[in-house]
Amino acid sequence: MQLAQQFDRAAGRYDVLTRLNPGYHGALRNAATALVTRLRGSSAPLRLWDLGCGSGLSTQALVDAAGPDATVVGLDASPGMLEQARGKDWPAGVRFVQAYAQDLPQVASEQLDGPADGAFAAYLMRNVPEDQRDATVAAIHDQVRPGGWVALQDYHVKGDGVASTVWTLVCWGVVLPLAVVLRGNPAIYRYLWRSVLANDSTLELSARLDRAGLTEQTWSTARGWQRGILHTVLARRPD
To answer: Where would I find the Methyltransferase domain in this sequence (predicted)?
Structure first.
């Protein structure tokens, strides 16, 4: 079954499961706030991409940080996740589009009149096939204006034995049992476990950002059990 269909099956319980993850929402808010803080330079409302928006949790973090006048375009490949997102109450400037992140260059011209100020992608890149990740990062670079910023947030444990072990214990001891109890499509959370173990290391992702021309990288990690596992990087498209 295609990955988007697996996310469709998990969509109805996705928000419930994330609420049970200590620090999940706080990490989204922190990353969105850091992105918006770097973009504050004029009184004009910000124009932002939310790539891999899922059920809209990251979209809400961006709206909270940027304010209700911001334009936020959420993009996701899963119709089920987008149905959850569209069913929530949003300001007029928020809209959603079904597409893969790899299709961003084609979608962008239909959604925004020119490059956005910034782009946020939480838990996206590990779902992009490895041979398409460089092209996807380059597309994100190209759809952000010169001087704009990109924020990427995801789990990165490759090359860190302790982080990999903690990740496996949490997935098999907490996440998967909860998914079974709450009927949240355990298959997608087994995929989550595998995809994180195979995801780029922070060094590999940093190199992709370098190749795309994104500079001034700033890395941070979460607190609590996610320390050393969940990482956020902010990078700038040069003027």
So the answer is: 50-148
The DSSP line for the chain is --HHHHHHHHHHHHHHHHHTSTTHHHHHHHHHHHHHHHH-SSSSPPEEEEET-TTTHHHHHHHHHH-TTSEEEEEES-HHHHHHHHTS---TTEEEEE--GGGHHHHHHHH-SS-EEEEEEES-GGGS-GGGHHHHHHHHHHTEEEEEEEEEEEE--TT-HHHHHHHHHHIIIIIHHHHHHTT--HHHHHHHHHHHHHSPPHHHHHHHHHHHT-EEEEEEE-SGGGTTTEEEEEEE---
Residue-wise pLDDT tens digits, 46-72: 999 999 999 999 999 999 999 999 999
pTM for the whole structure? 0.93
Domains, in order of start, for the chain: 3-157+200-236 (3.40.50.150)
